[in-house]
Request: fold
Amino acid sequence: MTWADTDYGYKKKITIDHTKVAGDEVNFPILISVTNADLADTDNDGHVESSDGYDIVFYNDKEDTLLKHEIESYTNTDGTLVFWVKVDSLSSTVDTDIYIYYGKAGVVVNPSSTDTWDNQHVIVQHMADNPDTMHITDSTSNGNDGTKSNWNEPDETDGKIAKGQDFDGINDHVNCGNDGTLSPDNEITISVWVNVTNFIALEYPGLVEKDHTEEYDLFFYPIGTWRLICFPGGVRVDIVGIGSLSTGQWYHLTGTYNATTGKGYTYTNGVQSKVYIGDVGILQTSIDDLLIGERDGHFFNGLIDEVRVSNTVRSANWISTMYESENAPDTFMNWDVEEVFIETSIYENSFTLQSDTYTVYITNPEWRGLDGQITKDIALFDFWNGNFSTVDKGIDSRDRHLQGVESVINDINEKVERIWSMQNNKEEVTITRLGETINGIYIIESFDFKTIKGTNAAYSWSINLKFVRDV
Reply:
């Protein structure tokens, strides 16, 4: 059984639906948004050790590469995750598997990485308050954090994804500064989730702006429609978003422009709505700050979440897949059952040769924990006597024979072959551990059998089990 790191006691397979992936992608950030009791912490009957979710990690399909991820939020009481994971390879023709691992004790460092976002992301704002600074923290390595226009305005609220900001349409904005990374030279992509409370007639409220007369601006114009404007070579280019938007509903808006080719595109909810072909040249820059929720004193009234700017033109496939991942993560992926790392190690198994049969004695059957240390005596598997379905022997530390009586095995190879056959056929076995309740149906994932040569024939074996379901 593959297990990337046995310090983690649990894992689940996550399968990404290829029909929701518009085109093959590499290093693509997907949203992991789920509530699952297994992912609560141990104080709340879950299996995550850290109350901050720090012992949750992700691996690729082969379980040999740790994936970069960012924790946006984690609720330890019910196992609610809002994580972003950079998937190394995402297919549009076959489903993609990744694995979530958890249940490692002693993890106290936040594993979130700015490398979750590729270098072409110049700002990624999840639009949640940083409780220490009240800033809106940039998730990239550029540090383009946002400062609220007033100490508590706009107000943090439930967003499209975890938390967002509620803008009052009067004087609220978030100022992200004028760092040079916010001024792309030739290509740009801007995306944002919005939920409009009031369009504010004829005010042209801003969504994401860095000088609406010189650099770039994503805003509503007129009521119910929106557009992106850029300035290649100082010439204003308007790329209109098609379709009338309504109040009280979440929309994903994306605008792109390539100043080299003069092509611009707008997308509403992942669907291309407008193609623009026009002027070319270097995108004009300014020293103005990037503002969220304002355009030259025209303030947006509603909710804003997930603001991103990239210094490249994201493809139509990228934008469609981004929308699918973020809009409905419960249908973008499927979750498999929880798997438990259980390694049983029965040792000091002595066999006394009696003519053509073996009398089997088992000394101190024991359960080895995740750290390899012996933690509890366990019931034995009754493989040697042909009972391959139910195990219930009780627990104690006495030397014993199988089933408490002396057992004679006429053909040990036949018994071993039977276990291997069970493993290869994925037959189910019922395991009952007494003393501590750990009942369940398991599959034998791997079985190792060794012959120890000596005066008497001796054997040892170990079994790795994959949990299937409760009894």
